[in-house]
């Protein structure tokens, strides 16, 4: 994984969390790992990590070519029950087409912007679809209007 310049410590914290995460009855950790490995293949994507104790372990996918390196996707390992974690994968609503209707439209969820979020308690059937959404959001973020500051204010 690549961290934004000067933020390598975030990846150390993420790696520590992943190493300590041993109980996974929903089997979502392999999906998270697969999504993170997928981002390694895409240019200009960096990973930011934020631990929000008792809430989530938040992985933010950053387009480093944007001013300020704003994120275009958010992958939360929801930590309300550490023995039964699940993933919430969110994108700005105007950056993905949820043609399979697997996500939930949530007004104002990303810093006031509308989003499409995928709640993953059972990863079956999500891996390829979420990788497709990551690709789609990345491409759209790269062509986003630089005057639209929402992408880079929320990191």
Main attributes of the structure:
155 residues; 4 helices; 6 strands; disordered C terminus
Word description of this protein:
It is a single chain. The protein has 155 residues and is of the alpha+beta class. It is built from 4 helices and 6 strands; from the N terminus they run H-H-E-E-E-E-E-E-H-H. The chain has helices at residues 8-20, 29-40, 127-142, 150-153, and strands at 45-52, 56-63, 71-78, 86-92, 104-110, 113-120. A 6-stranded antiparallel β-sheet has the order 1-2-3-4-6-5. The longest helix is centred in the C-terminal third of the chain and has 16 residues, at 127-142. Residues 3-8 and 149-155 have low confidence and may be disordered.
Alpha-carbon distance between the two ends = 17 Å
* Count of individual helical segments: 4
Biggest β-sheet, characterized?
6 strands, antiparallel
Q: What is the gyration radius calculated from CA atoms?
A: 15 Å
Contiguous low-pLDDT stretches (5 residues minimum) are 3-8, 149-155
């Amino acid at each position: 994984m690549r961290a934004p310049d000067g933020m390598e410590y975030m990846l150390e914290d993420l790696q520590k969390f992943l190493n300590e995460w041993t109980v996974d009855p929903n089997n979502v950790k392999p999906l998270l790992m697969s999504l993170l490995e997928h981002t390694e293949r895409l240019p200009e994507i960096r990973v930011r990590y934020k631990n929000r104790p008792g809430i989530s372990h938040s992985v933010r996918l950053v387009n480093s070519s944007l001013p300020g390196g704003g994120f275009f996707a958010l992958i939360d390992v929801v930590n309300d029950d550490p023995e039964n974690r699940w993933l919430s994968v969110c994108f700005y609503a105007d950056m993905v087409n949820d043609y399979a209707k697997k996500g939930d439209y949530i007004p104002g969820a990303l810093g006031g912007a509308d989003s499409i979020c995928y709640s993953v308690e059972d990863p079956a059937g999500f891996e390829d679809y979420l990788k497709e959404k990551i690709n789609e959001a990345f491409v759209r973020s790269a062509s986003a209007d630089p005057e639209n500051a929402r992408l880079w204010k929320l990191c």
